[in-house]
Amino acid sequence: MLTKSLTALLFSLALASPALAATCGDTSAGFEGWKTDMAREAKAEGIGKAGIAALMGASYSKATISADRNQKSFKYTLQKFLSVRGADAIISQGRAREKKNRDFYAGLEAQYGVPAGVLLAIHGMETGFGNFMGDTNVVSAIATLTYDCRRTDFFRPHLLGALVLVDRGSISSKSIGAKHGELGHTQFLPGNALTYGQDGNGDGRVDLANLSDAMATTANYLRQKGWQPGKGYQEGEPNFAVIKEWNAATVYQQAIALMAAKIDS
């Protein structure tokens, strides 16, 4: 399982780590040397042989860097963003999914307080309801973003999280995710998967490619970030602040809230 006490310890150590000794870079030129330095740091923080091997086998991902530099849709107006991201289709499919699996989503709301519309809007927005969960090597993507000077401190805990997942056999060095290394139906960064992961189907493990686990994990993340059961989630209402925790882009936050309300209606 992903949610053992050792996980919390490793993740907290990563968050509290001193300044990096491994030198970041803006091109692929120093990546191989950085991996050696980073592997030494990761080993000192408790990462095992499988995780270290996965790190040393990682490749610099130009596709990840390109995606990180060109997130143009977040600069659109809300109406343009909704159109580009297929909001009408997400709402329609979300309603159908809620109707088909009403007991499942009611159970999640009873446990975590998060209504179906919010979970379904996120699911639809992130992966088209699981139809596309990524095409990029997870460890390579996270390692590249940790090496890159732009947001090293943000991605370092997620790299360590990915290596813990490899050590535990939850993912492998060949696992595929999104361009930034996100996993599963709702695209969790590895460190967040460790911290908030839930076994939604009761099989004793957390697998974010499994819909039950992914939805439970998403609901748990929102609840742990401060979701107030029964409170509103539109702009100006208490739970909109929690939607902000999911994604930093204002237009994305607004889109989730609007689509969720239409699905819930």
TrEMBL record:
The signal peptide annotation in the UniProt record is 1-21
* InterPro entries reported in the protein's UniProt record: Lysozyme-like_dom_sf, MltB-like, SLT_2
Q: Which domain of life is it from?
A: Bacteria
Might you name a Gene Ontology BP term for this protein? peptidoglycan catabolic process
- Keywords for the protein's UniProt record, in alphabetical order: Signal
Is-annotated flag, keyword Signal? yes
Give every Transglycosylase SLT domain span.
Answer: 31-233
* SUPFAM superfamilies associated with the record: Lysozyme-like (SSF53955)
The molecular function terms in GO held by this entry are: peptidoglycan lytic transglycosylase activity
Q: Name one Pfam family in it.
A: SLT_2
Query: Would you tell me the protein name for this molecule?
Result: Murein transglycosylase
Query: Which organism is this entry from?
Result: Cypionkella aquatica
Give the lineage.
Answer: Bacteria, Pseudomonadati, Pseudomonadota, Alphaproteobacteria, Rhodobacterales
